[in-house]
Amino acid sequence: MVTVMGAPGIGKSRLAREVAALAAARGVGVSWTFCESHARDIPFGVVARLLRAASGIRDLDGPAARSRLAATVPADADPRDRLLLDDLLGIADPELPLPQVDPDARRRRLTALVNTMSLQRTQPALFIIEDAHWIDAVSESMLGDFLTVISRTPSMVLITYRPEYQGMLARVPGAQTISLAPLGESDTTVLLSELLGADPSVDELSAVIAERAAGNPFFTEEMVRELVQRGVLAGDRGNYVCRADYAEVSVPATVQAAIAARIDRLDSAARQTLSAASVIGAHFQAELLTALGVEPEIEGLLNAELIDQVRFTPNAEYAFHHPLIRTVAYESQLRSDRAEWHRRLAAAIQERTPESVEENAALIAEHLQASGDLVAAYGWHMRAAAWSTNRDLDAARLSWERARSIADEVPGDDPGRLAMRIAPRTMLSATSLRGQALEENRARFGELRELCTAAGDKLSLAIGMIGRVTEVLYAGHAGEASRLASEQTALLESIGEPGPTIGASFPLFCTWLGAGDIGELLRWSQHVIDLADGDPIKGADFGLGSPLSAAIAFRGAARWWLGRPGWRQDIYDALEMVHHRDATSRAGIVAWTYGFAIQYGVLVADDSVIRACEEVVQTAAAAGNDMALSLAAYTLGAGLLNQAASTDRHRGVNLMSEARGMWLRDRVDFLIPVVDVWVGRERARRGDRDAIPVMREAVDKLHGTAQVFYGVWAAGVLIETLLERGTEADIREAEERIDRLTNWWPDSFPDSPVRVIMLLRLRALLARARGDHAYPDLVRRYCLAAESACFEGHLAWAKAMAEVEEQRC
């Protein structure tokens, strides 16, 4: 890994070209990609170009490219991953649907496949990434992942960038950095001598050029070229004479002035060609210039050393001799002329590749925005976001941000302005988990609320609330989440549209359960079940594959919590409905049925439950879906931690730790203390003295954030753990916590069997620890209550306590 840093014109590109030539001369394959200033917001562009070049498919059409790529992909690669790679490289078969994989999983699977292909490479290769300071964020992140295995392959990577770039590719571990400094006085003198020669007539001119160029070799060369084209210098390179009186010669003050003067001396055809090319980008083909209505004048630009021919077959390709030349050519045009070129280019992209317009939507949007057509640019940014949503959510959010910015610039008298301002903000709020900090998202949501109120747009506000509720829930602010959930349900009820109401309900279920508002959970889950009318996928457009199964699962949890009949059938129906659905739905339903019920001793984690959980873990892992995998791992971990075998419990700890790691990364903060209690319980059982302080902190955090559902359970686990250790201080603390738990329990449903059974169990354990004669009666009452509620887990625990008591007597 080599990175080359230097100012514009200092020689980065020349160094890259020389390295490439040396490598090619030694039989090393060279793959090259470049980054452009106008494309820094176009996702996937840089990484796709590099991978196409490295795979040898740059000039092939779809079928031929897929055939060539298939020969390089490992034979045992997952067919779904091959489809994802085809899509990334822009060669996907339009007849084949893409696998339904969430964006993060998609990226991990692509990284694994590309890195496997890299590790299998046996031939030496050189990869060049030029001008990384202009790289798009998605490509930068993906290339960072791909570069992690380069040191284990027969490959070299060369990355060039300017000093202001501080991104990931400038900090690749193990890379050697070359910093190119300006030429010293003696080196500048040597360069000017090679350019101008030794004739005395150029001496004074040489001194002025040296001063103006300040050690920058490109600046030096451009000033000499300008003087040659102006006729001040006559002769050939290294053998010039100055024809004019030095006192009458003006040397350009800056390199930009030198380039502008050279462009001004072009004939009209060449100047038009250069102007149009500067709008296309650093690299261009004559065919695209023709599509813009230009008769390309290439020869004059080559002779003037303003452009270079970088490819000859199968289609000639040209590049600006230096990025500064393109910048000057672009910025020296009249704004109206430039806007017209952008408009034509946007149309040409659509006409030339109609099958790829969605993939090119972000590029089309940028050109339309530069042309001044804000409304059209807005629409294309929204299309770009839609295309990116299942590929890279951060890229989609960038497109929504661009659309939001444009909408705010639309004149106030435009009748569509308010709707335009609402739509991207709705999606930014709905996906706010991937956005800024909590306070920033709160401000953004406030903007959406104001706009929706002004427009009377309840639906957009309700959709935007999905992300806001989820974000606040994940952050552990149960009270605020519950208030937002109540507002959202009021909106949804006033709208009266079944699809959004059903689809937006999953975060509401989680919020009410967590806050202990079980009555509202029961009411709303029943409402959703009625609206769905037996259709398992109604409302699935909002993220969850089977919203109805989720409603049934949460109704079941509410029913067993409140002691209502039908909860066991709900568990069965939810699991049956989701059996052949997507990984996220399956993992969620297993967690919300088996997971909750095992946690509270409602069900026993028997062999059939463990098998079902194992199957879902495998499904989630195969799908590469983090949320599904974390839920599945958590549920299986809970089941295994309730087994008698220490090996099972050890695996349960590992699974819980895996889930914790994923939740930490994804900012699902409210579940972190829950895992800490599960793991702490097992570590305390093994004699780890540090386990109880960790559990204590986790329980206090759950109580402090009003996480009733998890906090009640966690308090019970901590109390049991204290009583098992059994010091006098532990028993006193356990008694205090039982009193606190009794008072903290939601008083809406004082006869909840969960409340009655848990408190009976804890008081029985406290009595046993004290040697209290009330213990046998408490165990008897505990057993009867568990049997009456049909809570299998508690019944098994109660019978075990009773058997021990009988043996003792």
Provide the fold topology:
Blueprint: E1 2-5, H1 12-25, E2 29-34, H2 45-55, H3 62-72, H4 79-88, H5 103-120, E3 125-130, H6 137-146, E4 155-161, E5 176-179, H7 185-196, H8 203-213, H9 217-230, E6 233-236, E7 239-242, H10 255-264, H11 268-280, E8 283-284, H12 286-291, H13 298-303, E9 307-311, E10 317-320, H14 323-331, H15 335-352, H16 361-371, H17 374-388, H18 393-409, H19 417-430, H20 438-455, H21 458-474, H22 478-495, H23 498-503, H24 505-515, H25 518-532, H26 547-562, H27 567-577, H28 583-599, H29 607-623, H30 626-640, H31 646-665, H32 672-685, H33 691-704, H34 708-725, H35 728-744, H36 753-770, H37 775-789, H38 792-808
Parallel strand pairs: 1-4, 1-5, 2-3, 3-4
Antiparallel strand pairs: 6-7, 8-10, 9-10
Helix pairs in contact: 2-6, 4-5, 7-8, 7-9, 8-9, 9-10, 10-14, 11-14, 11-15, 15-16, 16-17, 17-18, 18-19, 19-20, 19-21, 20-21, 21-22, 21-24, 22-24, 24-25, 24-26, 25-26, 26-27, 26-28, 28-29, 28-30, 29-30, 30-31, 31-32, 32-33, 32-34, 33-34, 34-35, 34-36, 35-36, 36-37, 37-38
Protein name: Orc1-like AAA ATPase domain-containing protein
GO molecular function, one term: ATP binding
Organism: Mycobacterium gordonae
TL;DR of this structure?
65% of the residues lie in helices and 6% in strands.
